């Protein structure tokens, strides 16, 4: 009897428990590629769950570093990490290497608005959002819907949290935004700022408890996407309140707002040999050779600052600088920007590379040809 039990125990350890579920297909999980945006209290728990389920490819985006305030809500961070101001991406990399060494991890230390190539939203499905501001959610929403993918939003505060799933034929995040949401859109109050404010009053705003619960719900919905169980996805919104152990699952899914400006049409993207190391002067020839595009201009995600005004009112002409790189310094003083770059050989930006223009690797270029038609090109 003891030998039989031992044999069964050893055999069970080699089989993933979830593989015994009738609807679970292990190969789909191994081939899945999930994009996680935000690596704080919520994002770190999402990454841990994805590792436990052995998701094959995990890409994580975050621009922040670890500090003392982050240690209260995530066990992924250590005091040594905080002392060294280690990027959160590197802590995530260590976690995945330890828990899921056979998986593939891609870490992007940057801001989702500017530093993440848009093709990541095309190759990853679903996207799990663990961000802390409306601006990032609005950006994620608009990009994901253009690729016909799903994204799963999560948010936590104190012992409460919410989970929302957005995808095909559903109301999007923008559909639900109120006038107050729009007015507060540019008020970006990050997790670390909230933590500092609450600690000064002897409170902790988020806990690993609420993060674990909401993260588990997000990953649960992600598994449905990966397994192709789209009809089982949570179309309505889920709200959890831990102080009273109260859950609300709204019965009717939000209705799509016909006035919503979000573009639900899918982009037709071509693969290009262009890379961020190519100069503007080289673009015209490459695009014509590879795609028969007689290009005219490149529309930029982040405008170039070409002049700014100091406090005394004097205008300074500067070399073209991507706006997001100095936004905090010059936001109120910018007087001239360029939103498009001419691709003709005599362009004033001819010797700048795409990297100089602020375009990240694996981005999708918005190229306008000589007839005004727009082409979407995925770069290397």
Q: How many strand units?
A: 14
Percent range for β-strand residues: 15-25%
Backbone structural class: alpha/beta
Strand order in the largest sheet: 3-2-1-4-5-6-7-8
**Count of discrete domains:** 2
Written overview of the protein:
The chain is an alpha/beta fold. The chain folds into two domains: 22-249, Rossmann fold (3-Layer(aba) Sandwich), CATH 3.40.50.720; 269-378, no CATH class. Helices cover 30% and strands 23% of the residues. The chain is built from twelve helices and 14 strands. The chain has helices spanning 2-13, 26-31, 41-52, 79-83, 88-99, 119-123, 134-146, 179-183, 191-199, 208-227, 280-291, 327-330; strands at residues 33-37, 57-62, 104-109, 127-129, 151-157, 160-166, 238-241, 246-249, 269-271, 295-309, 315-322, 334-342, 364-369, 374-378. The strands form two sheets. Strands 3-2-1-4-5-6-7-8 form an eight-stranded mixed beta sheet, sandwiched between helices. Strands 9, 10, 11, 12, 13 and 14 form a six-stranded mixed beta sheet that branches. Strand 7 (238-241) and strand 8 (246-249) form a beta hairpin. The chain is globular, with a radius of gyration of 23 Å. The model is unreliable at 1-13 and 328-332 (pLDDT under 50).
């Amino acid at each position: 009897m003891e030998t039989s039990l031992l044999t069964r125990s050893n055999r069970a350890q080699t089989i993933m428990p979830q593989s015994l579920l009738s609807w679970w297909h292990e190969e789909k999980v191994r081939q899945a590629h999930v994009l996680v945006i935000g690596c704080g209290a919520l994002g770190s728990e999402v990454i841990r769950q994805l590792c436990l389920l052995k998701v094959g490819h995990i890409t994580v985006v975050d621009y922040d570093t670890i500090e003392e305030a982050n240690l209260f809500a995530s066990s992924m961070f250590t005091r040594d990490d905080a002392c060294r101001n280690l990027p959160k991406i590197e802590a995530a990399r260590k976690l995945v290497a330890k828990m899921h060494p056979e998986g593939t991890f891609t870490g992007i230390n940057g801001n989702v608005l500017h530093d993440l190539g848009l093709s990541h939203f095309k190759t990853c499905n679903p996207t799990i959002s663990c961000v802390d501001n409306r601006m990032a959610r609005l950006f994620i929403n608009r990009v994901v819907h253009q690729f016909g993918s799903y994204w799963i939003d999560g948010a936590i505060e104190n012992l409460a949290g919410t989970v929302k799933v957005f995808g095909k034929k559903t109301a999007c995040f923008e559909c639900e935004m109120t006038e107050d949401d729009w007015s507060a859109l540019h008020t970006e109050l990050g997790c670390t700022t909230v933590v500092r404010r609450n600690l000064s009053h002897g409170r902790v705003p988020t806990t690993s408890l609420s993060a674990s619960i909401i993260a588990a719900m997000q990953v649960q919905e992600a598994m449905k996407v990966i397994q192709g169980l789209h009809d089982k996805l949570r179309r309505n919104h889920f709200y959890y309140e831990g102080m009273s152990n109260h859950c609300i699952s709204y019965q009717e899914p939000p209705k799509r707002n016909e006035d919503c400006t979000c573009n639900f049409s899918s982009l037709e993207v071509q693969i290009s040999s262009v890379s961020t190391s190519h100069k503007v002067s080289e673009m015209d020839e490459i695009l014509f050779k590879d795609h028969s595009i007689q290009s005219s201009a490149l529309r930029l995600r982040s405008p170039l600052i070409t002049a700014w005004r100091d406090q005394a009112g004097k205008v300074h002409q500067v070399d073209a600088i991507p706006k997001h790189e100095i936004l905090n310094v010059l936001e109120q003083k910018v007087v001239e920007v360029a939103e498009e770059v001419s691709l003709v050989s005599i362009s004033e930006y001819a010797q700048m590379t795409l990297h100089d223009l602020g375009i990240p690797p694996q981005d999708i270029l918005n190229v306008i040809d000589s007839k005004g038609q727009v082409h979407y090109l995925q770069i290397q």
